[in-house]
Amino acid sequence: MSVLADVEARTSQTRPSARQAAVAWFRRHPVLVIVGSLLIAMLVLQAVALFATPADRNKLSTRNAAPDGAMALARVLEKHGVTVRTTDSLAKTADAFVDSGGDATVFLYDRNGYLDAAQLDELSDSVGKLVVAAPRTQTLAALTKEIHQAGVLPDSAKVVDPGCSAPDAIAAGQISANSSFVYTAPEVCYTNGSTAGAYARTSNGKLTVLGNTTLLSNGGLDKDGNAALAIRSLGSTKELIWFMPGITEVRQARDRPTINELVPPWTTFLGLWLAVIAVAAILWRGRRHGPLVTEPLPVVVKAAETAEGRARLYQDTRAIGVAADNLRAGCLARLARHFRLGPDASADAVVDAAERRLGHSGEARRILNSARPTNDSELVRWAQQVEHLEKEAKRP
To answer: For the chain, is the Cβ count within 10 Å smaller at the N or the C terminus?
Structure first.
């Protein structure tokens, strides 16, 4: 019994542990380990990309934490007890206003001008207090007839004083100018000494226009009195509906005219007349296919015609170097046959044989090795020299 126990103890000591076995397996299969690790990493990255919430990069978006976003203002308003609801359609905005019991401020920032005049008129009629930031000219004209755009503040103006008796502007004090748009209205503030200001309100106080988006952004909220003016303008009610229209709000014209409605009536006759002329021209100038012409094959082409055709191709493409190489190669091949040097003779061997035949004057080496014509006239003169050299070398 003791012998059996001793054998089992020794066996357990020599048997590798699970960790050692795993390490040994990894060492024996490094390629599988690397490929498996890469697959796991790719699956993790895909899962993160699939379930991660995409970042909002829209300007003045309440979910954008970048300097041009408005997340900071939304958080500050929520800390002051204002419920901020973000919408991207006119229908959602109207529903949110109804849910608030009519006690809500609607903020509109239509940067791309997606809403048309009818939609803006519907928005103005269905909500109470409306605040608009840097509206387009068409947007402002559709919302009210009392406020008109009047340019921008000069670049030299870094900050601007209220210059009015509006409570919100007086409480905020100076705000950043940042080349703000200015407007004429029954009540204007931040005029910088003129009659137009960056803060405008209608006579009934229902519509407020802010000409500067910087005072609402994360990057400009903490400067001067920007935060105070933004909070007082947007946080006067229990709820704030932050309306930023999307591309889905663009309406297509249902009564879009057709091509027949756009063109004048006389074009109908003109089109028919042009069609008749086109058919007549086709019949007059169209290719008439005759009977097939048979030609005996193979076709025999004269060598002179082939050489002339290739020469014209070289001339059209200005391939002077290629033409010179072909002429040089042909001359060397003929001289090699004449001197019986064999098919494997090199160019230097052929030139040396020609030099010996011509008395080592160096003329053959200059023409066949050194000369490189660069234009048509030089190529013609050089070809004549090659022809003369070949005749002299073959002379008995």
So the answer is: C
- Report how far apart, in Å, the C-alpha atoms of 309 and of each of 7, 85, 167, 279, 392 are: 98, 81, 93, 39, 28
Question: Chain-centre distance of CA 163, in angstroms?
Answer: 46
**142: its two tokens:** 């559709």
Q: Is residue 130 part of a domain?
A: yes
Angle at 109 between CA 196 and CA 223, to 5 degrees: 65
Quick one: 224 and 344 in the same domain?
A: no
Phi, psi (rounded to 5 degrees) for 247: -65, -20
Whether the predicted pLDDT of 229 surpasses 50: yes
The strand ranges marked E within the chain are 83-87, 104-108, 129-133, 148-152, 159-160, 175-176, 181-184, 187-189, 199-201, 207-210, 239-243
pLDDT at 7 over 50: no
Amino acid letter for position 310: R
pLDDT above 80 (res 258): no
- Beta carbons within 10 angstroms of residue 59's beta carbon: 17
Vertex 160 angle, CA 157 and 164, to 5°: 145
**Amino acid 6: pLDDT:** 45
Number of domains in the chain: 3
Confidence of residue 188 (pLDDT cuts 50, 70, 90): very high
In a domain, 305, yes or no: no
Q: What is the DSSP string of 288-331?
A: ---------SSPP--HHHHHHHHHHHHHHTT-HHHHHHHHHHHH
- Classified as helix, coil or strand, 30 is helix
242 and 182 part of one domain: yes
φ, ψ for residue 210 (rounded to 5)? -110, 120
Report strand pairing: 187-189 vs 199-201: antiparallel
- Provide the angle, in degrees to the nearest 10, between the axes of the packed helices 226-234 and 71-79: 60
For residue 53, what pLDDT is reported? Answer: 53
Tokens 């009392």 sit at which residue? 146
User: For residue 180, what are the domain limits?
Assistant: 71-249
State CA 329 to chain mean position distance. Answer: 53
> Which is more confidently placed, 14 or 248?
248
Nearest CA-CA partner of 73 in 59, 88, 55: 59
Taking alpha carbons only, the member of 148, 160, 99 closest to residue 127 is 99
Only one residue has tokens 């976003």, namely: 69
| Cα end-to-end span (Å), the chain | 118
- Residue 259 counted as domain residue: no
